Amino acid sequence: MRIKFLVIAMFGFLLSACAAGTGGDGVGGGTYSTIQPSGTQHYLDAVVGDRIYFDYNQYNVRADSAGTLERQASWMQQFPSVTVTIEGHCDERGTREYNLALGERRANSIKDYLTLNGVDGSRINIISYGKERPAVQGSDEGSWAENRRGVTVVN
């Protein structure tokens, strides 16, 4: 009887330990990487970082974004079969045509950064969405800053 009770108690403990992990968001130092495959979009989003931000009317990679892109390059080197598309986005200001061109320059600057850090450029596609796919709605500096971004998406 004691053995049966111990087995049930151990099973309950193990089950609760699995559920406690990180809540599925990859944050908190739990067992995320052993649960989710590391070469997935979800892992890129939660652990590596899938996006960087740009200053107004700029396409150069900011110093505060270098760490994210270095982690992306390292991650891509660990998973040589992964290909990605870099999306370039802009805020709502400016014409559609201007923002499509700016979004393309932003996507290309990310691609250039990754290739300079050892990623084969043939694994990276780019696309510009200009101002057509805002991350947040609003016509204020906070919203605009969130929308001026480059996003790495696993193909």
Structure description:
There is one protein chain. A four-stranded mixed beta sheet has the order 1-4-2-3. The protein has a single domain (28-154), classed as OmpA-like domain (60s Ribosomal Protein L30, Chain: A). Helix 4 crosses helix 5. The protein has helices at 2-20, 32-35, 41-48, 66-78, 96-116, 141-147; strands at 51-53, 84-89, 124-130, 149-154. With 155 residues, the chain is an alpha+beta fold. Residues 5-33 have low confidence and may be disordered.
Write a concise synopsis of the structure shown:
The protein is α+β, with helices and mostly antiparallel strands and 155 residues long. It has six helices and four strands, in the order H-H-H-E-H-E-H-E-H-E.
Low-confidence stretches: 5-33
Considering DSSP H and I runs of 4 or more, what fraction of the residues is helical? 40-55%
Indicate the CATH class: Alpha Beta
Query: What is the beta-strand fraction?
Result: 5-15%
What's the rounded overall pLDDT mean?
84
Write the layout of secondary structure elements.
Layout: H1 2-20, H2 32-35, H3 41-48, E1 51-53, H4 66-78, E2 84-89, H5 96-116, E3 124-130, H6 141-147, E4 149-154
Parallel strand pairs: 2-3
Antiparallel strand pairs: 1-4, 2-4
Helix pairs in contact: 4-5
Question: Which short descriptors sum up this protein?
Answer:
globular; 4-stranded mixed beta sheet; about 15% strand; alpha+beta; 4 strands; about 160 residues; 60s Ribosomal Protein L30, Chain: A
